[in-house]
Structure formats: C-alpha cells, structure tokens
Write a structure and sequence with these properties.
- The protein folds into 2 domains: 120 residues, no CATH class; 215 residues, no CATH class.
- Helix content is 62%, strand content 12%.
- It has 12 helices and 6 strands.
- The protein has a 6-stranded antiparallel β-barrel.
- The N terminus is likely disordered.
C-alpha cells in the first residue's frame, strides 16, 4: 500500500487498480490513511501552508466528497468543503496540504471516491486574484475610467455647453439692443458659451471692442482648460495602466525565477516556470484591457470637445459682430 502511494506522489497521478473501470470500487483509495498521504506529499513536494482555494468546474463531480485528496502539478490538496455539486459541474474548497505551487487546471485523484480527474474552470475573479496586488491599482484605473466616461457623456454635449435656446434668445437680445436682458440670460447660463457671453457683457460701456475680445479669449481659454481636465485624466490612465501591468509582470517573473533558481532541471521545473510566467502575464493583460478602451474613450470625447469649442468660436464671432454694431450705435447716439 505504501509503495503504491509513493509512486502516486512522485510520478504524478497514477490511478490504482480498478480506477475508472465501470462498476468497480476503488478500495485502495478508500482504505488509504490520509495522514500517511499528507506525510508522503510533504516529503515529495514540501509541507503545505493549509491555504484554501475555491475551485469551479464544469465536470461531473457528483461523487466528490469532503476529505478526498487530489494532486495538481506540484501540490496536494484536500477537499474541505463542497458548495455545490452535480452532473453539470460544481464548486468546492480545497486546502493545500502539500507543496506551495498554485493549483493548476487539471486535478488528479489520489485518495477518495471522487472523479478520477477534474478540470477546473477559471473565472474572471480567479484571474484577477492570480495577478496579485498590482491588479488593485489597475482595477482602480478601470473604475476611474468608467466614472470619467459617464461624467463626460453628460458634460461634452452641445446642448449643455452652448444650447440652441440660449443662443437664439441671447442673439435676439443683442439685435434688439437689450443689454440688460442679454446680461441676465448670460448670468443664468452655466455652459461654456454662457461664460463667454458674461465676459462680453462685463463692463460693457467702459470697454472698447479690443477689451471685450480679450476678455472673451481669456474666459474661453480658462473654461476650455477646465473642460479638458477629464481628458487629461483619461490620457494619464491610458499611459499608466500598461506600465502597471508591465511592472506586475516583471515582479511576477522575478518571483517565479527566484522560486526555482536552486532546483535541478526537470520536467516539473519547466511546468512550474510556464505556470508562473502565465500568471505573471495576467497583469499585463489587465493593464492593456484598461488602457485600450481608455484610449478609444479619450479620442471620442476629445473630438466632441473640439467640435463644441469650434461651434463656440463661431458663435463668439457672430456675437462680437452684434456687439460692435451696438457699440457703433452707442457712439453715434452720443452728443457731439
């Protein structure tokens, strides 16, 4: 019995006689002393840290029971809880009792009456956790992108920055020479063009056309600068997210190489190295998954803002022409 278990621990999953044959019980697995198995696993792969992992699978795990022992690549696990199980798959919790390698995709039974092999299914949450702590700032970048995008949908609208109703009413007031009405309309408007119109109306009688034009340019530049703040944030996120992903990958690969640096060359070492590099690359994938959509969002809203600014520039020239007419009429009406 001990010889059979040692072979199973050292050379990988080797099913005992009768495993997988229809209608036959695996009595050898049933009679195995779990404490002996843990001892053998510790001798083969090193002692486990008793860390628990939640595993999802689409395989038939109807026969899976608490206490079953499974092995993946270089670690041994004990099933400590079963959340749900059935012919279409299930979810269970496995405790690492031997080795320190993360659980792989393929699980092979070495004790118990569960399925001979189980192929785990990785969820997005599993991939996120596998990426390590660097995934947290990447996730924050993603959340910030979503918030900024939703805010930009509301802010970068022509109906908010230069609404047609305000433009028509203000232009009519200027054509009629009704400056108080124009000032009142501009004071109540909160968009970009409303601020420009307030600059036009400020100190109207004491200002020349050059003064009014200069005030409009200054106010327009200040407001456009404020409107570009979300775009600058998106530009920063699109630049920093892939760098965070690259940083996480480099740290993960350094850790991976460090963990196998003093081991002899073997097939298991190659498997461990490949698994470590695979996990390390998750952060790069996460960073690119944030940066690429952010660049598209930045391009869309930057184009929207540029179109709004162009419209406001054209309207400003039209309004300044109306104001110059008012100024000319005002100068003509003064007594000589």
């Amino acid at each position: 019995m001990a010889l059979s278990l040692t072979a199973a621990s050292q050379t990988g999953p080797a099913p005992a006689k009768g495993i997988g044959e229809p209608g036959r019980l695996d009595l050898e697995s049933v009679l195995t002393d779990v404490s002996d198995l843990v001892k053998l696993a510790a001798e083969d792969e090193g002692p486990g840290d008793n860390r628990q992992f939640t595993i999802n699978t689409d395989d038939d795990v109807t026969s899976l029971e608490v206490g079953d022992i499974y092995k993946t690549e270089r670690s041994v696990f004990k099933i400590v809880a079963i959340r749900n199980k059935g012919a279409a798959g299930g979810k269970f919790v496995a405790q690492r009792i031997g080795g320190r390698a993360p659980p792989g995709r393929k699980w092979s039974r070495v004790s118990g009456l569960g399925p001979v092999t189980i192929v785990s299914r990785e969820t997005l949450w599993d991939l996120y956790k596998a990426g390590g702590v660097v995934m947290h700032p990447i996730a924050l970048c993603m959340v910030a992108t979503i918030i900024i995008a939703l805010n930009s949908l509301w802010v970068y609208r022509r109906g908010r920055q230069c609404p047609a109703s305000f433009v028509e009413a203000a232009q009519r007031a200027l054509q009629e020479g009704d400056l108080p009405r124009f000032e009142d309309l501009a004071r109540r408007e909160r968009g970009l063009f409303g601020h420009i119109c307030r600059a036009m109306a400020a100190k109207f009688h004491a200002s020349t056309m050059e003064d009014i034009r200069a005030r409009c340019e200054i106010e327009a530049g200040r407001q456009v600068g404020l409107l570009r703040i979300p775009l600058r944030a998106l530009n920063f996120i699109s630049a920093v997210a892939p760098l965070l992903g690259l940083f996480g990958t480099v740290v993960g690969m350094v850790t991976c190489f460090e963990s196998i640096a003093f081991e002899a060359a073997s097939a298991s070492k190659a498997v461990t190295l490949a698994a470590g590099i695979r996990v390390a690359l998750f952060t790069t994938v996460g960073g690119l998954a944030v940066a690429i959509p952010t660049l598209f969002i930045l391009f869309i809203f930057n184009s929207r803002l540029n179109a709004i600014v162009s419209d406001c520039e054209l309207l400003t020239e039209q309004f300044l022409h109306e104001i110059s007419v008012m100024k000319r009429d005002e100068a003509a009406a003064r007594p000589a």
